[in-house]
Amino acid sequence: MLKEFVKLNSILWWRSLQNVEVAAILFYSLFLLIILGQFIAVAITLIVAPDISAVQETYPWYTEDVNLAFNLFFINLLWLNQVFFTKISRLRLTDNRKLLALGMPLRRLTGYLNLAGFFHPVNLLFNVIWVFYLAMLSQSNLQFITIVLLLLVNYGLINSFKWRFKLFTADNLKWVNGFLGIAVIILVILSTGVNLPDYVSDASAIAEALNSWLHYTPGMVFYSVASTLSSIPLLSTLIVVFGVLTFFLIRDMSEHTRQALLQPINANVRAGKSGEVSTFIKRLGLQGGKFFYTIWNHSYSKTQFLLTYVLIVPYILIAGDGTTANQFLVSVFLTFIPVVFLMVMLANPFGFENRELLLTLQAPVERRKIILERFKTAFKITGIAFLTVLILLPFLFEDLLTMIQVLLGVTGINMVFLHMILKSSMSNYKKIEEVSLMSVSNPAVPASITFSAMFVVLLLGILTFFVLEGRQWLHIILLAAVTAILAVWFVRKLATTTESFKKIVIPKLWNEL
Any idea which UniProt keywords this protein has (predicted)? Predict the structure, then answer.
């Protein structure tokens, strides 16, 4: 049965990859290797140095407090990244559930899924870094055994927390988003009153102040177990405690996986809960309204819309100080506002209500009407983002010509992105599944789209947002002409969307039945 498990999940993984996604994965892997190399180099410099006084000959500011601050900062940063990036999807439970029908025992399938989750490349990468980093701090074999058990407990606690968070957000998403929005706004307000030059004059004083706070962070637990605890009785006690915790956390993880296999988590979309957007949905039309309703009720969509207005917009207002460099950054971030809306609405438009799309093969509603109404709804929602850009322009730029140039630039870059996302909506179709907000690899938007969006905005922004003194009108006319050509071209491509949908998406929808 292990062979059947590996075969099934290998096929599912291979089918899920697209050409652009493979390139994105390779790029991310190379990026991680570079970051990991720099991380290891810094770690060796900070930890392997036999005597701090020897390092101080070259770097006088490198005191014991600075050394401790560096270690605690890196450990906490690594732990926070692990919390957000740890994969809890346990592969594709819906498809793996088929193995139960083929006779695989529930307990064995649960064990396979949990092991596969632990050895997921992302999860394994974090644990390997932990072992490498903390092993350099440890001084005995007993400490190393304690570290390994601590890492197992850490993985189990993160897994248990994220799984419960996933269940909690299914019914309480608005409270989570509200708390997140309030927290970010408070941080933005506080950051405006911080004068960084006042805090960088003395490295030792900064480290001492940081350590007083970092002592109460999770990173201090790892650092203490790996470097400061040397008592054999205490380490032996910790080994027993961590061993017991590991046993109970494995049982908890197995129970969650077993329940998910036997009773899938209900979708966020529930009949009878139209909520506060019901009136707005009716104005979008029958097909467009149902499409927006399914997107609005997906956890990814609400969070992305929220982050756009509590992160990007405040940053734009703070950074808009009138300098040339900041004007370019502000223009780029203005472009990201509608790009985020387009990603949420169009990166995977056929992953929502896909059963209804299948029924169009027999239902009286034309498939063309459903598809075009979905795109029209996406444009109407993205219009809210463009309205936000229009409102912000007078506050950020004084010159009318610059405002026109930026608005045309934002529109033109989004038209380029629209052409890309129109093709992606077909080739990168993915079935929407219930996911946790704590997972940054949410399947609602393919990695290739987020990867491409960043480079499209940045690269085209270089050509779009610079100001030619004395020839700004020429630049504006050129931007207007390019945007008009892209718009006409997109309308023509949109007219043939139904045929592409029939050839590319319909076969994938049938294969999922």
Answer: Membrane, Transmembrane, Transmembrane helix
